[in-house]
Task: structure prediction
Amino acid sequence: MVDCCIFDLDGVLVDTARFHYEAWAAIARELGFAFTAAQGEATKGVSRMASLEIVLRAGGLENRFTSAEKEQLAARKNALYLQKVSGMTPADVLPGVRSFLEDVGRHGVSRVLGSASKNAGVILDCCDLRRMFEAVVDGTTVTRAKPDPEVFLQGAARAGAAASSCVVFEDAAAGIEAATRAGMRSVGVGGSPALSGATMQLRSFENFSFDMLCRQID
Ligand code: B16
Ligand code: MG
Result:
């Protein structure tokens, strides 16, 4: 039984994970080291300040900056990131996503956004996705970042759904762990081996339907 689908944003509905990575890599370059794409994987689904710590550790600079300096670095990264996402359009929504969201809605099942990002609203508006969700929970309303289950528990509460009837769509290991800790089933989107803890795997939303989800997850 599935009463509510909760969708992560970055890496599930849109491919903004690469913009996060490019912005962090630019900050690392300014600080004098290379931040590799493999190192960038660990920042997926993780909050902005926790991501900064991962970047600084990669450069051996974890004890180098004051809190105020770290805030400045994070703000600078965010400005670079916003430059990249502000040009997004509905064409940037990943293949099959829009029709799957419509299909879920046609079944009368709640659609909730559950993202760690403080920029979720900007992306939803640029990509004309906001009207496809009954509730939006994001980095502006959540106090504890994934893998804490807060974001998904807030989403279930907003939809009035029991955790056991929710399915979370996630591209990050931290998000799959958060779903499991919330008592929810999960779909690991994108095929990364890091998502082996998910209830089921989905490479892409192309040709995927709500009926297929129910058959595979129930
Ligand atoms: P922001 P999600 C997450 O979004 C990203 O995966 C992660 O890389 C980022 O650090 C985090 O949002 C915070 O984003 O800096 O925009 O507030 O995957 O939970 O939708
Ligand atoms: Mg994500």
